[in-house]
Amino acid sequence: MGYKEFFASKRITLMGLGLLGRGVGDVEFLAPLCKELVVTDIKSEGELSTSLERLKKFSNIYFTLGGHKEADFTNTDIIIKAAGVPLDSPYIAAARKAGVPVYMSTALFAKFAQEAGATLVGVTGTRGKSTVAHLIYQTLKAAGKQAHLGGNIRGLSTLAMLPSIKAGDIVVMELDSWQLQGFGDLKVSPPIAVFTNLMDDHLNYYGGDKEAYFLDKANIFLHQKNGNKLIVGAGVLAQVQKAMPPVVPLVPPPLPHDWKLQLIGEHNKENATLAALALRILGLSEDEIKNGLESFEPVEGRLQKVAEIKGVTFYNDNNATTPDATLAALSSFDIEHTILIAGGADKGLELSVLIEALKKCKKVLLLEGTGTDRIKNELENTSIYRSITGTLDDALAAAVPGDVILFSPAFASFGLFKNEYDRNDQFVAAIKQLR
Predict the structure, then answer these.
(1) 3-class SS at 231?
(2) Residue at which a domain ends, from 103, 138, 163
(3) Which domain holds residue 90?
(4) 368-422 per-position pLDDT tens digit
(5) What is the torsion angle, in degrees rounded to the nearest 10, for the CA atoms of residue 236, residue 241, residue 242 and residue 243?
(6) Average pLDDT along the chain
(7) Long-range Cβ pairs for the range 232-237 (8 Å, 24+)
């Protein structure tokens, strides 16, 4: 059964419209295919006005906003829930009790894309998944392959990509732990899976249960079949092996010494080795892989050089939302000549190693938040700010030629910002004002 037949004549409840564009894209794709679509979100009509404006053209959509109604989850044919819906959602529990199938859009895409004859490459991990997925995708495109990029991509509805997928295409998917819950429900895994690493993250969502976080991630390989490939970073190999994957995990060899990457940091060298092995499995030549990796520029918000002003270099590492990620960024520079902009909302993670590293920085400027509250009293050379503009002005004033100003928050964005994308955009806009 193709996707059109699957959705036809069904009453669908979509849980979570959101503001990032993915939910709206899913709705725009589903509405013409299904009989009736109920869109429900805890956000109000006013909060969702931008998203709702795009959906006025459809007559078969009904909205429940500012909260959920149990009837929308029990009197329907299927539910498509957004990533990040709480594990203990009473509405999802009611749906399952009523026998209503619960899906996630990215997993449904994976199912139908594979049935259409496409090859899927899934990439997960606490850190590095965006860089590895983009490395694979951009190198495939440069080599002339028919490739697509989906999954955890800003503003992109992966489900809406289905009409463009053909037999023989390659789809590279960046997958977070929430999206992989849906893969577990469908018992599907990409035939080529990459697991970069595993660090503490999202423990507030998982109630402090590190194993639950790992097991959601593990859905990227738990349902693989004989002949599929599983590529893992050396640091996560032991834990993957304990989960008894259906195929033998592969740890990539180092890159040849004469390959010159534009990416900085030891962690990015490992990311490149993971991408290179996936590309070899996909049949690319060594020259094609070398050219692709060497020409690759950092993904936005991932240790990305964004400006050089008065001899001072600025890096945007907005997506570093954990202490481990910021520590990796700091290790890429001379820390005594690094002015760090960090801080934000707490995730309940261990901070002692981060605090010791921050004490070595030339200067630390902190954006206010519950995470900042946990570290501010441990640092002497710091100030607290409510805006990125203020931090950049003071950071530049404290810098001399040769210094690095690194924006690597180590915490989540909630509080001062709508989400991590809003924080990124405000940083980029503030940089432009400095020039």
Answers:
(1) strand
(2) 103
(3) 3-103
(4) 999 999 999 999 878 999 999 999 999 999 999 999 999 999 999 999 998 999 9
(5) 90
(6) 96
(7) 232/194, 232/195, 233/125, 233/128, 233/195, 233/196, 233/197, 233/270, 233/274, 234/270, 235/197, 235/198, 236/125, 236/195, 236/196, 236/197, 236/198
Token pair, residue 50, equals: 């931008």
Dist. CA 375–CA 425, nearest whole Å:
25
Q: Residue 349: name the closest of 319, 377, 371, 379 by CA.
A: 371
pLDDT digits (tens, 9 = 90+) for 257-309: 999 999 999 999 999 999 999 999 999 999 999 999 999 999 999 999 999 99
Q: Domain check: are 258 and 319 in the same one?
A: no
- With the C-alpha atoms ordered 195, 197, 202, 206, is the resulting torsion angle positive or negative? positive
Q: Are residues 66 and 99 in the same domain?
A: yes
Binding-site residues for ATP, in ranges, read 125-131
Detail the residues annotated as belonging to a binding site. Answer: 125-131
For residue 4, give the 3-state DSSP assignment.
helix
Could you tell me if 131 and 198 lie in one domain? yes
143 and 80 together in one domain: no
**Dihedral angle computed from the Cα positions of residues 362, 365, 371 and 376, in that order, rounded to the nearest 10 degrees:** 70
Residue spans of the chain under pLDDT 50:
none
Clarify whether residues 178 and 277 are in a common domain. Answer: yes
Candidates 15, 26, 18, 27; CA nearest to 49 is: 18
Q: What is the CATH number of the domain that holds 416?
A: 3.90.190.20
